[in-house]
């Protein structure tokens, strides 16, 4: 039994470690953000609340129904509600009724409220999806930032490994008298600088992991990490399309544009509702009432007083009323007129906002297009620069090893290679992210393969 317990404990520990060491893909990060982001949860609650407006609007078409009942006792002079005769004794009475009313015509305001509720729910859905778009881009940016920092760390460690070999080789050259001892100190200084770069790069990796974890609202920073992968520049033909083509397509599916369009529709429905107050309102009503008294009543047929049962009185004393009520607005202190004017202003404001959003989208697309072109040129230039720096470094290394170059000039050549490699990584991920943004405007989902 003890052995079985130990085996189960070991298996559980292994499973716990495996769970803690889970590494996240970009899609997993995005999905998790969608499910756990507090802003998204807030917007989802707003959407649920707005959907209730539709139920309210549907309820406006239905007749109302209410019931009432009263039981009372009176001592002294009072009136019997069943015959309206005065009595001077203790009397117990009861009454009850049902009432119902329905709006027959209200200037079509109920219909406009229902249509507005549908449009408002649609606008809220677009608002939620637009937030998800922004969060998806933020997650992708944070994800790529971790990849950038990890790749930089790998390069710094590789550079340090090369410097260690140079350091060993320089010691041999110093011992053989080929180069002075000062050259050894210069290489040692270079190695110390690279060690500091590695420490800084490790910190950047950790900080970028924290930033992404916080975006996902994960607090276990030590055990949060993304999948280790070699990320190459993805092929893309997005630049084969003109900015105008990308913009025109973005107009057809971008949630921020659809949100602005829906806001215009909602404002127009608000205007219709406000204008509906100019028309008369017609209501139909129906009421049923009955009453009871514990007082005896005089029966002329028998010349005696008799008490009628509770059930019989409810049947004998009931009555109904029904009819219609017409309310015609004549003067209301300019409130209806002013509400219509406010609604017209809101329609104009919504239309202006839609045009501003379209202009902003067009500017963003053109900026993203230019950013992709410029960042790709920078990436190409960084590739050529690194290749040239590496060639120059190999040449200076050969000269250093035979004593034709001092350690300072050699370390400078190596530093230029280090800087070129760091610049290549930076321009690479800068180009990748900007490419993903432009593709996103074209309707291509953000993925990292």
**In angstroms, what is the radius of gyration?**
41 Å
**What is the N-to-C succession of helices and strands?**
HEHHEEEEHHEHHEEEHEHH
CATH homologous superfamily of the largest domain, by name? Outer membrane efflux proteins (OEP)
The strands making up the biggest β-sheet line up spatially as 2-5-7-10
Number of domains: 2
Main sheet? Answer: 4 strands, antiparallel
- Principal-axis shape equals elongated
How many strands in all?
10
Mean pLDDT: 86
DSSP summary: helix tally: 10
Structural class: alpha+beta
Could you tell me how far the N terminus lies from the C terminus, measured between alpha carbons in angstroms?
Answer: 48 Å
Pfam family, one: OEP
Protein name: TolC family protein
Family: Belongs to the outer membrane factor (OMF) (TC 1.B.17) family.
InterPro entries: OMP_efflux, TolC-like
Task: Describe the protein.
The protein has ten helices and ten strands. β8 and β9 form a beta hairpin. The chain is an alpha+beta fold. The chain has two domains: 324 residues, Outer membrane efflux proteins (OEP); 81 residues, no CATH class. The two termini are 48 Å apart. α6 packs across α9. The strands form four sheets. The chain has a four-stranded antiparallel beta sheet, covered by helices on one side. It has a two-stranded parallel ribbon with strand order 1-6.
